[in-house]
Amino acid sequence: MRVLVVEDDPELQVAVPAALRSAALAVDLAGTIADADEALFVNAYDCVVFDRMLPDGDSIGYVRSRRQDGWAVPVLFLTAMDQLADRVDGFEHGGDDYLVKPFAVEELIVRVLSLSRRGPTIRPPILRYADVELDTGRREVRRGGVLVTLRAKEFSVLEFLMSRPEQTISRTDLIEHCWDAAADPMSNVVDVTITRLRARLRGGPDLIQAVRGRGYRLIQPSGAQS
Amino acid sequence: MRVLVVEDDPELQVAVPAALRSAALAVDLAGTIADADEALFVNAYDCVVFDRMLPDGDSIGYVRSRRQDGWAVPVLFLTAMDQLADRVDGFEHGGDDYLVKPFAVEELIVRVLSLSRRGPTIRPPILRYADVELDTGRREVRRGGVLVTLRAKEFSVLEFLMSRPEQTISRTDLIEHCWDAAADPMSNVVDVTITRLRARLRGGPDLIQAVRGRGYRLIQPSGAQS
DNA sequence: AATTCTGTGTCATCGAAATGTCATCGTCAC
DNA sequence: GTGACGATGACATTTCGATGACACAGAATT
């Protein structure tokens, strides 16, 4: 779990990351809102610890505006102002928790862990065609419910075909999407990979049709074509 | 938003619901853990406010056991014991926040609103996969009930894998979530950490599968291959 | 302050598995 | 029939992951 700490007080710049690292969290540090913004752009964090007052402004304003764009990473505010009005302010603008300085490091750790745990668990999509299911997250393919293990290239080609069912895909397109720049467009790698893919999917009719001079496409052999 | 308040003190039985209703929350009241259990069975709540000490026991025990079954509704504990050890204890067993009595009603409202908004998206504090248990609070891992001691990085990687069981996780994702910005994405730290993790978990079949060219994932080796 | 210990990162090497190449065969369209 | 294109088996090459040994930093201990 990775956390961004945004803090300008030199003492806390040392203490807070140290405390969080002791809880096996990976910690990055930023000193200003501008720095934090850049770090948030570059990396994926599970939680952000924001000092309220920073050299370039009040962090609540920043968080508020990011929330407007749907930014959802949990935030813990560290604040020296312990008036209740300010606390309410912090929550109402999308922050998820706050801690009043001075605080016990154990408490900080507990709260950050609690916030980090609620990560957005997004389900990667599952592609289907005929009796073939391709689970992009698990990198698994099933035919008629039976698990079929594919090589990386084979998977990648099938994924591309399944994302455009019944469209004819040229060898060039396949090379461009499934191979890197080093691939030789003149070779017959695509043909070979298609052959291997067919061999793996021998659990039903051949769904991969060669379109002479054009490329390949997925098609159900029973269905009529144009 | 609907909230269940579990409280036996007659004074608070009046004051707490009144305060929450003033914030436009729908409030139900229970006086014992048994009553609460029934109410939770019948209705869906966005948040539960639990007094720590109730006539039929300490509510932490109840919450802890419900969490084991994946129950995820946010809980706010009201506690008279303000020692930090107790606070940490409350969190580590799946509670999401606590408030020390006596408290300001405004603060109660703020916290309940925050928890309700957060929704039941928190993950249960103990992750399980096959015969491996990972306690995020205690930072302990058990395989087949046997305690396995892990290094911080190893724990962190396992936690991330276990939070997305059977999903293939790229080295990049692992670096981003388990290492800080100083990590070199080109190095093979991830591979080495995986090797070490496997070595520690040698108490059963290898659950960590390398997916060539993509990353790693947790999988039960029972699945047949072709 | 010096020393040991512990955790973590780096590097080099090994070996297996994935993938590309090539030669040959089959087949489809005209 | 024939010429071009696709299919396929055998083989060569490359890549990638696993791992042992070592290096280094910081914490703990003396």
TrEMBL record, chains A, B:
Transmembrane stretches, start-end: none
Keyword Ribosomal protein: no
Gene Ontology BP annotations: regulation of DNA-templated transcription
This protein's record includes keyword Phosphoprotein: yes
One GO CC term on file: cytosol
Residues modified as 4-aspartylphosphate: 51
Response regulatory domain ranges (all copies): 2-116
Molecular function as annotated in GO: phosphorelay response regulator activity; transcription cis-regulatory region binding
Name under which the protein is recorded: Response regulator transcription factor
Residues covered by the OmpR/PhoB-type domain: 124-220
